[in-house]
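Troubleshooting log. The previous structure file for this entry was overwritten by mistake, so regenerating from the original sequence record. Sequence copied from the archived sheet and checked twice against the printout by T.R.
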Amino acid sequence: MHQRFGSLVLTAILLAVAGGCAGPGAARGPDGDGPVVRPSEGITVRPRERQVEIEAWVCLDAGWLEQIACSPGTREHEALVVIKARPSNVHAALLLAGFEPGTPGEWVYQESGVSLTPPAGDPLDILVRYPRHGQIIEEPIGVWIVDAEGAAFPNDHWVFGGSSFAENLEWMGPGEHFVADETGSIIGLVTFGDEVVGYQRVIADQEAVHPPEWQVNSDHVPPIGTRVTLILRPVS
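Regenerated output below.
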């Protein structure tokens, strides 16, 4: 849980944010398989399945990776996909799906070396659904990632750390802000410490600590601009 906010307060704040741009609200699933909630544009929540689906598009087909998903105009040069929905709305959707946030991962320099603190929060699987050769493919997002030698990304889970709140900068006026809404970090691969969802293992965002490790699987990722759906669900 976030250190500075109780769960009820945090839920109220983030659901209010999501409610400000609510779409059609609650509806039945296409096969009568339970309610479908659309708390904001581009996000679908299936509470019974504890599943969140997020519309996105491919923004990178080659190069080193530091993010899985970011907001427009932020980190597209190092992210697989861009998500139009605000990071706080993604957080709110995960709350609606019944996931419990924790804290993002962290790394700090100490006299004895670098201290790594893994993220806390509910574990998640992340899949991606997209069209390929007339079919709809659904696969783990890790399939889109390889190392420098072309080896596959491990079948690890992701963690709902939940970003954090910070005091507003002077130009923002009084109050606090949801940090990921300013930085655009929605799903992190390396650890910036502000991501809504992060990789289970801490990978420092400084090359001196962790040299670049993961890159786009260029032979597999669909073309830039391809519309895709990210699926966040409980670890299977």
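The longest strand covers residues 123-132. Archived copy saved in two places this time.
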